[in-house]
User: Fold these one by one.
Assistant:
Number 1:
Amino acid sequence: MAAHMTPEEFRRYGRQVVDWIADYQEKIGSYPVLSQARPGDVLASLPAHPPEKGEGFEAVLADLDRVVMPGITHWQHPSFFAYFPTGASGPSILGDLLSAGLGVQGMLWATSPACTELETRVLDWFAELLGLPDRFRSDGPGGGVIQDSASGAALAAVIAALHRADGGAAGRDGIARRHTLYVSSQTHSSLEKAARIAGIGAANVRVVGVDPVTLAMDPAHLDALLAEDAAAGALPVMVCATVGTTSTTAVDPVPAIGEVCRRHGVWLHVDAAYAGVAAVCPELRDVNDGVAEYADSYATNPHKWLLTNFDCTAMWVADRGPLVSALSILPEYLRNRASDSGEVIDYRDWQVPLGRRFRALKLWSVIRWYGAEGLREHVRTGVRLAAGLASRIAADPAFVLLEEPRLGLVCFRPRWDGLDGAEADRATLRVMERLNASGDLYLTHTKVGGRVLLRVAIGAAGTTDAHVDAAWRRIREETAALS
Amino acid sequence: MAAHMTPEEFRRYGRQVVDWIADYQEKIGSYPVLSQARPGDVLASLPAHPPEKGEGFEAVLADLDRVVMPGITHWQHPSFFAYFPTGASGPSILGDLLSAGLGVQGMLWATSPACTELETRVLDWFAELLGLPDRFRSDGPGGGVIQDSASGAALAAVIAALHRADGGAAGRDGIARRHTLYVSSQTHSSLEKAARIAGIGAANVRVVGVDPVTLAMDPAHLDALLAEDAAAGALPVMVCATVGTTSTTAVDPVPAIGEVCRRHGVWLHVDAAYAGVAAVCPELRDVNDGVAEYADSYATNPHKWLLTNFDCTAMWVADRGPLVSALSILPEYLRNRASDSGEVIDYRDWQVPLGRRFRALKLWSVIRWYGAEGLREHVRTGVRLAAGLASRIAADPAFVLLEEPRLGLVCFRPRWDGLDGAEADRATLRVMERLNASGDLYLTHTKVGGRVLLRVAIGAAGTTDAHVDAAWRRIREETAALS
C-alpha cells in the first residue's frame, strides 16, 4: 500500500507548515517585494525528473526556502502597491485549509449540502454588508454565487445575457448573426476575452466613449450605439458598467447607463471587482448607486480588497433563470432525488466548471473574524492612507496628481519639466523600474490620455503609514535622481 | 486599525485547525458517507445576518462541528464510491496551505516567477510520469498548464481548436457560420456545455455512434459525419475522444480517431479526466495509446484518482500557439518587461480567468511525498480492489456485471429475475437509495443500453479490502431485502 501521510504525520508537518507561514508573516517586510529572479532561475534549480521514491515533507519545506522563495513576488508585503491587492488574512487562510482538509466537491447540493447552503447564506450576508438590493438575495428569483474570478463572472454574465436576449437560440443552434457587447475604453480586458470565448468576437465589442476627465462611460453615446446596432440588425447582448476601473478606479454612471439598458431591453452587468467591497462602509456605499435599480448581474472580489485569499469573486444575479438555463445539462450520472425535487440549488449550473471547492468557508471565516466593523476599518485604513499620499503628491510641485482618490488607488506622475511627452513617459517608466528593481516597493503603471501614470494601490493587511511614507520617500528619491 | 489575526494567533489557531483535520482523518470512517441533511437544514442553523463585531476563531471551529459537519458528504470517506473519487492527501492539503499562506497571484510570470516556473517543471515531470509524448513538454512548441477542471480544459481546447480552424476569424468577428464539434453519447456533458458557451450551440455537437458492447466511439461514423458536415459547409472545430468515460470508463480508440482527425485536419482533444493518471503504472499506460501521435490537447485530473485535492487538472497542448493567440489580450496595466521579452510564460493566456493561484505547490508536494512508486501503488490498490469486487459480482447469480474493470470503476446491477426492465430499474435505484440513506456507503448510478447500472468507483486514499467487503455485503443485503 502506498505510504499515505498518517494523521500523526499530518499533525507534525501541519504544525511545521503553520509555523513556516507565521514566520513568513513576521518577516515578510524583509523580502524584496518584487522577485529578483531572472527568467529560468527557478526552473534551473528544480530537478529535471520527478523522484522515483517518496522524499518526505522536510524535503519540500527545505526546497521551499531554497527554490521557491527567491521566485516569489510578495503580494502580502506591506509595500506591495502594484495592480490591486490580492487579499489574504489569517482567518481566510485557515478557512481555506478547512476546505482542503474536508476535501468535498460541491458540484451538486447532494454532494455536500453544507457547501451549497453555507455559500447561499454567506452571499446573502455579504449582500447585506454591502447594502446590495434584496432582489439579489437567494430567497427570491435571484441569488449569489462564488466564482473563481471577475473574469469568470463576466463570462457567466455574458452567457446568461445572451440566453435572455435570444431565448436560448445561440446555446441551441450556435451564434448565427451579429451579437454586440458594450464596454468603454476603461473596461477590464476580461470582457473582450469573454466576447472572444463566447463566439461574439472582439470586433463586436463596442467601445463607448468616456468623459475625458472622469473616464466614466458616456450614457448618451451608449444609447446611440445601441440604437445604431439594433437598426443594423445586430443583437445587443450586454452592457458592462464598471465601478472602479482597473486603470484608475473610475466609476461609470450606473443609474444613467441603467436607464439606457432598460429602454433597450439589454442586460446590465456591473463589474465592481475592486471597488464594490468598499460599500461595507456606509460613507462609500454610493459607489454602487444604481445597482439596486438596474443591475441584472453584479460582481465584486473579496479576494482583492477584503482580506480573502484568491479565488473568491462574489457574483449576484437578479434573476437566476437565464444563467441556470444557459448552463444546466443533466446527464444520467448526475441525476439525484434532491436535484429532481427542485428544492435545492446546484451551483454547478451557475458556473463554467462542473466541480467546485468549498470556498464559502474562507469568506465565512473572514466575515466572522472581522465582523462588519473590522471589514469597514480595513477599507477605511486603505482610503485614509491613499488620501494622505495623494495630498502629499498634490502639494509637491515635482508631481502631477490625476485626481483626489476616493478609494485605495493613487494615480500620478512626475512632472518632468522640460521633457516632451514621450521623453517624460520613458522617464516615468524608468522611475518605476528602478523602484521595483530595488525591492523596496512594487508599483505598476497605466496610461491616461496617452500619458504614463504610476499607480499606488493600497490595501494589504499589513500596510501602515510608515510603509506609505517610505514609498513616497523612495518615489521622490528616484524621481530626483533622474531629474 | 482592523483586528488582523497576528502571527502568534495564526500559530495557535493554525494548530487547532491542523489538529481538527487530523482528528477528522482519524474518525472519518465513523460518519455517514452521504450527508443526512434535508434541504434547508444547514441554512436554518446559520444566523440570518452577519455579525457586527468580530467573533474570534473559536466560534468558527465550534460552528464547524455544529452546523457544517452534519451537511457534509464525506468525499474522503473510505466507503465513498460515488461519481469518481476527488483526491486528497496530507501532502496535497499542506501544499495547498502553503499556497494560501504565500497568497501570491500568478497571472503573469512577473507576479511570481516561481508560481509559473514550478508549474512548468511539475507539468513536465507529470508528463514523464504518465509516459506522455515529448511534444507536450514545455521546451518545445507545446506545454502543460494547470486548469481548474476538465470542463475548463475542454473549453480552453475548444477555443484553441476554433482559433486554429478559422485563423482567429470567430474570435475577431464572431461566429458567423455553422461550426461543429464531435463527441459520442458517452462523452462528458462538459463538452456540450463548452459548445454552448463558445457559441457553437448544442445542436452542432455531433454525436458519433458507439460500439454497443464497449461503448467506444466508432471512427468510421466519425469519418462519415466529418465528411458530411464539411460538404454541407460547416466548419468542424474539434473531436473529443475520451479515455475512461464518466459513465463506465469506456476508452475511445484514439489511434483510429486520430487518423480520421488528421485526414480531416481537425483538432483532437483527449479527455482522460479520470483514467489518464492510471498511466503512472506502465502496465496501464496503453490507456493513452494514440495520444502521443495524434492528440492536439490532453487533460487528466490529479484531483480525481491521484491524491491531489480539487482543483487540479493537468492539461497539455502540442502547440501552445493557437491557445495563447485565442486568449491573449494585453492592456497597458498588465504590460511588463518580462512579458515583452518573450522569454517567459504568462499562464493567464492559457486559461479563461485572469488570476491564478499557486496550484503547482500541491501537485509538487504530492509527487515528492509519494514518488513515482507511491503513486503507482495507490493506483494499483484501486485496480486490485475493483477487480476483486468485480470477480465476486460475476460469481454471484443474483447480479450482472457490465464488464471486467481495468481501472477502479465497477458497473453492475442486480439481475431481478421476473421483473421487466422498468421494474428492475426502479428496484435497482431503490437499492441504491437505501444504501446511500444508510450512511454506510455512497454510490451512484448510470444507464447503459437503457438499463440502470450501479457504479462503485474505488480510489480514496483510505479504502481497503475491508471497506470493499463491507460494501459488497451491504449491496447483497439490500438487494436480497427487495427480492
Number 2:
Amino acid sequence: MKDKGILIVLSGPSGVGKGTVRKAVFSRPDAKFEYSISMTTRKPREGEVDGVDYFFKTREEFEDLIKKGKLLEYAEYVGNYYGTPVDYVKETLESGKDVFLEIEVQGAKQVREKFPEGLFIFLMPPSLEELKNRITGRGTESVELIHDRMEAARKEIELTSMYDYIVVNDDVERAVDKIYAIVQAEHCRSERVIDQYIKMLEVE
Amino acid sequence: MKDKGILIVLSGPSGVGKGTVRKAVFSRPDAKFEYSISMTTRKPREGEVDGVDYFFKTREEFEDLIKKGKLLEYAEYVGNYYGTPVDYVKETLESGKDVFLEIEVQGAKQVREKFPEGLFIFLMPPSLEELKNRITGRGTESVELIHDRMEAARKEIELTSMYDYIVVNDDVERAVDKIYAIVQAEHCRSERVIDQYIKMLEVE
C-alpha cells in the first residue's frame, strides 16, 4: 500500500544559505527525495546545464506556461522569472516520492495556498537568535533605532508563522540533520498515516 | 533564556512493546529527556524493580494520592491502577527538560486534556495478529485476560486520531530512531519556537 509523497519546501530570507543547505541535503547518501528543478528566464551562467541546474526558457515560453497554469509558483526577481513546473511535482508526489523545493519566500507563500498539506521549513539566520543582545546589549543605540529594529524583527517573526518548522542555520550539517529529522517525523504524523492503519484494521 | 521542556507521551495498546521501546529510548547515550516513572497497584513481574520500572503501591495508597490530586493521570486497567505522579512532571518541564511518559491509552487521554501542547506518540503493532502473538507469547496470562486485552487493543487503535504521531513497532531500533527524529523535529516546530522569539522581543 503506497502513500502519497510529501512536498518539502525549504525557504527563508535571501542570503540565509538555502542553496548551500539544499546541496548538503542532497549530498547525503540516504537522500530519498526528489529535487524539483526550477525554471528561469535568466541566461545560464558558466558551467550551468539546462535540465540540471535550471530549465532555461525564453520570456515568451515562461509567460505561456504561466497562462496555461503550468507553474506551481513563480516570481520575477531582478528582471528575470523564476518558477516551479507543477507537473513534475504532482507526478512525483503521486508516485509516492517526496519532492524537495528550495524557493524564495514569495514563492513559498504561493505553494502554501496550493499545497496546504506541504511541509514548510523556514531557514532562519543565526543572527536573529542574537537579536536581543544586538539590540539591547550594546547600550549605545537610540530608543528610536531599537524600536525600528524590534519592528523589523517582529515582521520577520510574523512571516515564520506560515511555516511548520523553523531551522536555525548556525551550522550547515546541524541544519541538515534537523531537516532529515523533520522529514522522518512528518512521515509518522497521524494525519498522514492514519488512513493506512484504518485500511489495515479493516483487513483483520 | 530557558524554554519549558516538552512533555513526550508514548502510549499504545497493551502488549505492543511500550516498555521495551521506552528502555531502548533511554539506553541511547544521547537520551536527553527525563523518564517519569509510573505508579501501579499491579504485582511486579519477574525482574521488575520498585522505583525503576514502576512505583508499586497498594490500592489504599493509590486511592489516597487520587484524592489529594497528586496524579497527572490514572486509570484502572484489568483490575489494577496505573498513574503518573504530577509534581515531578511539572517541575522537570519548568526546568527546561523534556519529560518522557510511557503510559496506557486511557491515561494518555487525560494527559492530552491537561497538557494539549504535549507530544503524543502512538506505538502501533505491525498487525493485530502480531499483537495477539505478543500478548499470548508472554505466557503468563490467562485466556480470559488475553481476550480482554485484544478487545481493549482494538478499541485503543481507534483512538489514534488523538495522537500527533504514529510509530509502528515492527523493529525496536527503528521505532526508537523515529521517536528521536520526532522529538528533534518538535523542537523546531514553529509554534514552539515562535514563543521563544516573542518572549525574547518582549524584553525591551
